[in-house]
Amino acid sequence: MHRRAFCRLAAAALALPAVPRLAAAAAPLVERRITAAPGIAPLFGAPRRPVVIWGYDGKAPGPEIRCRQGERLRVVVANRLAEETTVHWHGVRLPHAMDGVPGVTQPAIPPGGTFTYEFDLPDAGTFWYHPHANSAEQLERGLAGALIVEERQPIAADRDITWVIDDWLLGEGNVLHGDFGNLHSMAHAGRLGNVITVNGQAQPVLQVRAGERIRLRLINAANARIFQLRFAGHAPRVIATDGHACPPHERPEGLLLGPGMRLDVVLDMAGSPDSRFVVSDGYNRGQEGDVATIAYGPEPLRASLRDDPVALPANPLAEPDLGAAERLEVVLDGGAMGRATHGVVDGRRMTLQEMVRGHGLAWTMNGVAAKGHIHEPLLTCRLGRSYRIVFDNRSAWPHPMHLHGHVFRVLSRNGAPEPHTPWADTVLLGPRERVEVALVADNPGDWMLHCHILEHQQGGMMALMRVTP
Ligand code: C2O
Ligand code: CU
Q1: I want to staple 321 with a disulfide (CB 3.0 to 4.6 A). Which of 6, 42, 386, 436 is the partner?
Q2: Considering every ligand atom, which ligand is closest to the CA of 459?
Q3: Which residues of the chain have pLDDT under 70?
Q4: What's the pLDDT tens digit per position in 220-244?
């Protein structure tokens, strides 16, 4: 072999220590390039002024990356921001070095720098990508995009559509409100916006035809807003939670989506030609409103609804052994209007007031308020073993808890079995709710476990779960 070619090969092999080379050779490679950069977003369309944002390729949301299960994805990320960033591939079970957590899995990408992410896609599903550096600000400014992994054999649908749902806090003159570190929202519900967008557009209209079947992938990319979506006149069937198949079912109470969470639904267009329906959000009392409109064209697509099966194939997830599982507990506490009085910061116990005023922290996990990404692991697991994790939310606020590198089953809430025990990487806990999940710790490394309300994450609700061989 030519010496230069050999050196290049050897260097490539060294750069990817965690990836078995056989798999690398076998999986078809998909290559993309994305650039985190300032840009402008129309949000409302003319004549209102566009909003200055940060986005992937200058857009919010960034380009949708579509691949197929079993492929290998390589994304070269360039940073044209004035600050450092990383990209986290939310929900993808990938090797630790590709997880995008600064200081834990990689050095942050400096302004002007690039980083190449490369990993296999073992699971089909709806995933998304976003920064994991200064997250509360970088996501709020618009950095987020969908990562769709199609099944090898997708279900029959006329269209496969993604809705990246977000909210924005805009002030005078359509300018993004700059108060990102606001301590009040940090200690309460997080930063809630005053404009809701779907794929970067406020109040969009989805044009449909009677009889059409749409596979709709919902992604909540908002910093803090929890959505409870209702599709007037329609009965969406949930077929996947956080990307993973579940028995198809309806949710008459609405589709509940905490930040970070996804739902895939099958939407059969049962309305009549020329009719209109609203998709509304009703989670926050007093802030109920329309998110989008569904508008039927004059011509039906077909005379009656499709009845092809909608159940998705399962992903290759390891089923936790509940009998042998060790039990771990994670107590969530802090925030306004709760009973918590103290927390540990940098090894020192202090009052909540000292935490807020001195450190900008208000939340604890097992009594500890974490600063940044680098800390002692809160949980330690042995590779290949099963665990039950009980999240005990003692605070007065909801928390969507997200674990990196793994997928867990949601077993119960306040002791009541969770219908369908769905797979998830993010589970929404209501105020003072206890939720039990189970997983196999099958991915070695230090994995973030945090609240996906990004102001809570920044305010201390972040921890590491270590999986050791
Ligand atoms: Cu979607 Cu740790 O994040
Ligand atoms: Cu939270």
Answers
A1: 386
A2: 2
A3: 1-25
A4: 999 999 999 999 999 999 999 999 9
